[in-house]
Amino acid sequence: MSKDKIQEAKECMDKAAKYLKLSLLKWVPDYDSAADEYMKAATCFRVGKSYKESKECLMKASENYLQNGSLFHAAKCMDQAIIMAKEIGDTSDVFKLAMKASHYYQQHGSSGSASLLLNKAADILQPSDPDSAVKLLKEASNISGTEDSIGQAMEYTHKVARLLVKLNRYEEAENELKRQFDLVTEGGPTSNMGRVAVELFLLQLAKDDYVAAKKVLQEYGMQYCEQAEIYMLDSIINAYSDHDCAQIKKMLNSPFIKHMDVEFAVLAKNLADKWIVEPKEQVTNIENEETEAASTDFGGKLC
């Protein structure tokens, strides 16, 4: 079966070459027919599990569609070439292909297809090249925002924030979460914004900015959070103010936070692990100055 398909693919490639060949009676290549044959060849190679050859045929098909001005079909070929790149484990040109294909989709007027492609490419690149994945998702969000798909833009923006938290790039993640609130003011949906407020609150704690966390509660929490969430955030604020390690650990390990998106759940766990609760039996009146200093120096993290 595989050998038959590969042979069929080669025959299609030969036909494509003939469509492009010029002669005394044929002055202009038949790009459209050649592109169709390369597409057939790509399909045959894919069925025959020759993914590298399939990708090469898809790129040739894309080139010929571009020669004929068929932007959508050219972008679609690149879209499929990205999938083949994933199959062969070579994602070195995925970022470039995704950006170029999304540009062609937009020129054709298919912005939805452009943002979906960028999101798909970002998923492929996230394990090996998270920086490029962030760029693709930001572009997807920008495209959706300008095309009045604000809900979709918010979804991509939140995905960027989660990836940035995973990379410990908290300042950038904070900007992305705040952008979600800006998109709400432009008509975006308010569902789940209470959870976003909690995420922004946790980011401030991760930056050791207790005052900023309190502002998040006042500015966003009171507006978007449920009463139970407001109580939780307020309890954390009070516990930080009182240096109450046990209460901080308890609230940061609450079921609500544990069931947040994994990146923020891990962030909260790491925050909780900073707070060390000393057993009561270890608290003694040791006169050694060095030991006393170690036990009484809070430093913003240890009790």
Automatic annotation (TrEMBL):
Molecular function terms from GO: soluble NSF attachment protein activity; syntaxin binding
Primary site of residence: membrane
The keyword Protein transport is annotated on this UniProt entry: yes
Mode of membrane association: Peripheral membrane protein
Extent of the signal sequence: none
SUPFAM superfamilies: TPR-like
A GO cellular component annotation in the UniProt record: SNARE complex
Entry's localization field: Membrane
Gene Ontology BP annotations: intracellular protein transport; vesicle-mediated transport
Segments forming a coiled coil: 153-180
Keywords attached to this entry: Coiled coil, ER-Golgi transport, Membrane, Protein transport, Transport
Entries under PANTHER family matching the protein: GAMMA-SOLUBLE NSF ATTACHMENT PROTEIN, SOLUBLE NSF ATTACHMENT PROTEIN SNAP
Family of this protein: Belongs to the SNAP family.
UniProt protein name: Gamma-soluble NSF attachment protein
Organism, scientific name: Aphis craccivora (Cowpea aphid)
